[in-house]
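Components:
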Amino acid sequence: MNRPVAKPAEVRKVSLRRQMQPIVQQRLMIVMLLLLFGVVAVTARIGWLTMMSGGEAYAASTDANLPPRADIVDRNGVTLARTIDAWSIAVHPDRIISDPEELAPRLQALMPERTVEEYTEILTSGRTFVYLRRRALPELVAQVNALGEPAMEYLREPERLYPQTNLAAHVLGWVNLDGEGVTGMEAVLEERLMDPAHRNEPVALSIDSRVQAAVQSELATAMRRFNAIGAAGIVLDAHTGELLALTSLPNFNPNAANRSSDRARFNQATMGFYELGSTFKPITMAAAIEEGVVTDISRRYDAEEPLEVGRFTINDDHPQRRYLNVPETLVHSSNIVTARIADELGAERMQAVFRDLHFDDPVDFELPVRGRPIWPEYWARTTIMTAGYGHGIAVTPLHLANSYATLVNGGLYRPLTLMRLSPDDVPPGERVFSEETSDQMRGLLRLIVQEGTGRNADAEGYRVGGKTGTAEKAGGGGYRQNALITTFAAAFPMDDPRYVVLIMLDEPRGDAGTGGASSAGWTAAPVVRQVVSRIGPLLGVIPSENRDIDTAHLRAMLWRPPSERS
Amino acid sequence: MTITRKFRSVAWAATVASAALSCYLISHRVSAERNALAQVEREIQLAREDILSLNTEFQTRSRMSQIEVWNRRDFVLAAPLPGQFLEGEIALASLIEGPVADSPVRQASATEDATDDDRIDEDVFEAPDLDAADIPRFQQAAYLVPEDVADRARGERIAFLDDQLRGAIAGEAEREDAEGDSADQ
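Structure:
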């Protein structure tokens, strides 16, 4: 009887639940949708990120292969300049833990370029970041790290390295700490070296590092031996105008260019203007032969007495006191006869030849050359005469080397270049002398080395031909008797000239080996012999004991004292 | 009935979730592969940098000035002289000291019937039929040393032996003489 009857309160509860059910389901649905949306959003984001980051990583890996600056190599692919990752040491002075008074002397012991006081000042300055050393060696980084100061920072930065140190330093130049070229080819080629499209390919210069090394080392030896204050050496391809070696001593190490002196940075071969003396005589002779002033080289000119023009007297260094023909003039380096021939040639024709050889312009090539040659303003009769034997007109050794290339290569002037040329790029050249004149000059230049002042340059088997030049340096209102510029301009092999070698020594002093003589035949010529016998085989010029240019007809013109006649 | 209806939505949700999950796993797998690839590429890059820096170090250590120092101080090298170069084979042959043909000259002899073959034969320019049985695949050539030359060579050998023998006998005699002398003293 006692039927269970639902209590009114429970009934109310159930009815409420029934009422609430749709609302709860709706809310649950919303929450679930929100969660789902969140999951989808997160998944999408992760997917997006993986795709994007993958792409970035890939892009970065291809980019890292591109060096920040292109390499510079020589004509055979030997690296002359390369950018590497280097260490640099920096400090955060505001985060220093150890005692600056203790740390400073230790730093000074490791990096002696600053004083202890300077280090203390840096460490106590409270600045956030100071470089202590750019371009540090890994050993130094390890040593500084061993000091145990956590405020030190070691960074890897791109650094320009010149593996060959001071080889061709004047040609290469150097870069500043921001990696921009300051001088030399680094500055000239700045755009090409930084161009992202070409950065992968190294730039090839015309320099041959083996030839450059031979010239540099032989020049350095000669400079030490003769106590010269400077020297310059050039090796030039006579048929293309490519410079295989261009050196000026003293030189510097481009890896530490800021530690070199101004004098070492001065490139005498391109910036130094010198009165190069007798080396001009073959040019004057070639001009006279070319212009028909000298039609017969066996014609004799008066060299019995010093030549007096106005109040000016022209003397010979090796007076012969007789009449001389052209071969004899060059062999004995007679100023008097050269002056006579220059006088006959006249100012106009002489200037024309000098202009054709670009003696009135700065050297036309890649490196920036300061100033212009010293070109006489007024060509008096004496100016013509003295210019004929290389006085009163000053050019750089490069001018002279190129004019010798023109003399022997068949008479074509080509601009000089420091870039390696492919055979198609060789400029056709401007004709200055005829083939016949050039042939005749080859014989005469060879004769000077066989019989004349250039005997010491005769590298056995290489058929060297060339001319000495000894000039007094101008200074103090006149010429200084004992301050000489000795030059030897040569070409080899003379039967088919391929290379021009020019050696210049600044203020050499003769020693016992030269009998005290400091003229070019005793100082510069032996360097040429050394250089030629070293670089000849490297350049594919094979020395031969039985091959030579025929100079018998020229030798027959030389007068010999009766005792020497056979 | 109601249970299945209720569970249907759950099943749907589970299907969608597992599909999304598998999609996510696939993309995760792809990105893992990609990272592994990037890792390999980084390693290649590091190896390249190593090669570059070692190469640079090598070039720096073998720089021209260093080679120059070694050549001058340690090896004392000098530039080659023209006598050290040769122009072609004739110059090379001229270096052989003494007459080249020292041994008796040997001549190839030809038999009489060989001369008949001197006339130009049209068949000569045709390739021989290799299958023909009468042409041997391998042809052997031999030449005879003329009788008199061989005799002379033999004679010389014997004479040489004689010389040696005589020299040995003479040496023996001398030694005996010397011993005899010393014994006398």
